[in-house]
Amino acid sequence: MDFAEKFKSMSKLKWRVLDAIFKNMWDYKFVPAEVIAKTANINPEKIEPILKSLKDERLVENKYTEYLGSAFTYLGLSLYSLWRFVRKGSVSMLGKKMGEGKESLIFNCYSEKFGEAVLKFHKVGYSSFKKVKEKRDYGTLHFTVLMVRSAKNEFKALKRLHGHVSVPKPYDWEGNAVLMELIDAKELFRVRVENPEEVLEMIIEEVREMFSLGIIHGDLSQYNILVNPEGVWFIDFPQHIDLNELESDEEIRMAEDILRRDVENVLNYFKKTYRIEKDINSVLKYIKG
Ligand SMILES: Nc1ncnc2c1ncn2[C@@H]1O[C@H](COP(=O)(O)OP(=O)(O)O)[C@@H](O)[C@H]1O
Ligand SMILES: [Mg+2]
Fold first, then answer.
1. Which of 32, 97, 176, 195 could form a disulfide with 147 if both were Cys (CB 3.0 to 4.6 A apart)?
2. What's the pLDDT score for residue 65?
3. Residue 126 pLDDT grade (very low, low, confident, very high; cuts 50, 70, 90)
4. pLDDT tens, 199-235?
């Protein structure tokens, strides 16, 4: 299925139904047809056939219990998020698919407001340790709500860091999608850099700056660092840790472990690939300033 084609084939009525599901997804795991009808201002009798057709297109999943209820699929939520961007003028044209991983779908796109950009659709909801407290969420919320949370978290981190740390400029966030600057660089693991010592120094310096701004990346590795001759860029922040949100000693300890793991990943990679060795404890000490 082509994403852009599916987008064009949607009727106004279907967008209204998806919009109604979105507006109620925080209150119901499966939004009752009746609630959808009311929110979308559509005759309740008309809702069922629309939901059936959306289900056939794999945009929603329907559940029949005491009542008919509906929830997004990943595809449905992503298409809907794109619709929100298009409607507000943040995305003008969808380009090529740049990548599809376990955790996201990445598109090139063009925006009249921002120029060429990257659109990232989040597939995963992170159960970071901060969320353990919200465990009850997992019982009552649909998993697509967690995708929205992931996108929001990523956007939040990029906002905080941009201008201080080398990250893509965040342009906009809607649903499970983040719109950001396109960086013309390759993942660290794909290239053999000529100045590995210098690159490692830059990475450590930036991680230190991130930390001083209250952020630990949380998934740092050669896969989430981009490089080009101008420098290094950090991407992929949905599971970052915000130091200002830590409340207990246990949380602080867990955050320290995560920072150590981040730094270890990088140091191990440079050791393995470039035979550069650095003592993890002194690097951590430097980062924590
Ligand atoms: N802003 C960007 N500019 C250029 N390439 C990007 C950008 N964001 C993501 N990518 C590319 O898409 C891939 C996946 O993005 P990432 O944010 O790491 O998501 P995932 O959670 O799927 O790993 C990256 O490894 C990179 O190749
Ligand atoms: Mg990644």
1. 176
2. 86
3. low
4. 999 999 999 999 999 999 999 999 999 999 999 999 9
Beta strand spans in 86-197 (E) = 93-100, 104-111, 115-122, 170-174, 177-181, 186-187
Rounded Cα gap, residues 131 and 16, in angstroms: 31
Atom of ligand 1 nearest to the CA of 104: 22
pTM greater than 0.85 (yes/no): yes
- Rounded distance from Cα 281 to ligand 1 centre (Å): 29
Locate the ligand 1 atom nearest the alpha carbon of residue 183 and give its number.
3
| Cα-to-centroid distance, 106 and ligand 1 (Å) | 7
219 is catalytic: yes
Q: Chain-centre distance of CA 256, in angstroms?
A: 23
Q: What structural domains and CATH numbers belong to the chain?
A: 3-72 (1.10.10.10), 89-181 (3.30.200.20), 186-288 (1.10.510.10)
Q: Considering 172, 219, 236, 262, which one is annotated as catalytic? A: 219
